[in-house]
Amino acid sequence: MVVDSKDPDLSKLELHNVPGGAETFELAAKFCYGTNFEITTRNVAHLHCIAEYLEMTDDYREENLISRTETYLNEIVVQSLEKSVEVLCSCEGLNSMAEDIGILDRCIDAIAMNASKEQLVSGLARLECDGETGKLKLGCQDWWLEDLSVLKIDIYQRVIAAMRRTGVRSDSITASIIHYAQMSLKGIEKRQAWDSSMVIGDEQRLVIETLVGLLSTEKITSVPLSFLFGMLRMAIVVDAALGCKLELERRIGFQLDMASLDDLLIPSLQNSDSVFDVDTVHRILVNFLQRVEEEDSEESSKCGYESDGLKSPSHDAILKVRRLMDGYLAEIAPDPYLKLPKFMAIIELLPDYARLIEDGLYRAVDIYLKAHPSLTESECKRLCKLIDCSKLSQEASNHAAQNDRLPVQMAVRVLYFEQLRLKSSLSGSSADGFFSQRMISSSGAPSLAVSPRDNYASLRRENRELKLEISRMRVRLSELEKEQAFMKQGMRDNKSGEHGRAFFASLSRGIGRIGIFGQGHGQQQKSTRKSQGSEGKHRRRQRRSV
To answer: How many other β-carbons are positioned within 10 Å of the β-carbon of residue 118?
Structure first.
């Protein structure tokens, strides 16, 4: 630069964009003048970059600074996962220089290779230990999770991609992503409590969107549901991209039957909206029902009509989700800001066969009506039409018949179905019809139009109705036993006062009724007695005359 300069009185040079700044330039100058210093993981990247910047190749001196740093990288850094991570962390202020000369790629590939080797070694150790104590089964594997959590999100994304290429286990990658999210987002939350600048919000949003993108290639069941709900809440708070939130909702929807009620209670951030985010839960439920339809279509295509609906995992899952959604509806119903269309949309999503008993839905609707007294009569009717009164239990039916908050039409429907149940229980036609239907269905040809799910639901419904009929017959039997006991008591007390006269009067009426059924025989006896009496009188007259 001095030679190229045309200024004869040059006394000062300006070096622009020196990698590592003045401190790193001073180390390069010490190297030129023979001053000893140590090359470490913290300065090797800076030294290598400035050596490239200053063209300190072996053409000017053997074992120049470029050669020295190359040797350190190859023999020390690349052989260790921890040291590779430390070098990556030290490359923050080097801009694009470290990328151009290949330091980042070398360290990233080294991390992936060392993680793959460690995975192989730990796998062999577990195989040796399984026959003895088995203590190493969850031992030192994946110890590098803590090391990767200090990387910047863009570098971490490249490290995970390299690990996938080298064959690192999927569960290890998932565990690393979860640990990275817990560490990085927790730190950002602490800083955000003191500093509300938009920079932290952008950083948080970038971390969430990147991690969700990394999870998109993993198996759905390999990611814990609690982590997905936590990420979804964070994505809503930082207003992440729509695709990010939809991906989380899709993954949650595929495991909704494993969720708890607390997981679904996602707060709403809109001031004028309801307390809880009902729209998000609605989309999650839609994803779950799509998964059920896909599983059913796959089963029907594989097994045809031979598939056993009672053993299908989707049926158990949808029953669990039905109970979960009934509880969710009861939790959000007291919210005075919850609009009726949103409340009804959740109810209408679940198919009819998912609700074998409507008690939970009735409870949620009753709570909503109590919390929203300003509903019009037409709105109450629309809401109560969603309840199938024939699926209410005896206790719920009794409560509904006396509930003033319900429309008159629903109370009439409840009483109508109760009347049908009572009539069928007294006549005994319900149980006989049930068993005859079962016998016909078992002996006759099966209907191909009935799906396994509908068959399963109908069997459960018939079983429930049979139990109700049996309980009603037990009540009726107990009443008859009480009447019999009362009659026996009356027979014991027949000698005393009015009770005795009343008993004999009732007894005579009973005998009179018995005589009604045998009028012909009674008349014959009566005529026989009259003829015998007249013959006796005639004989007595004959004797007196003699």
So the answer is: 18
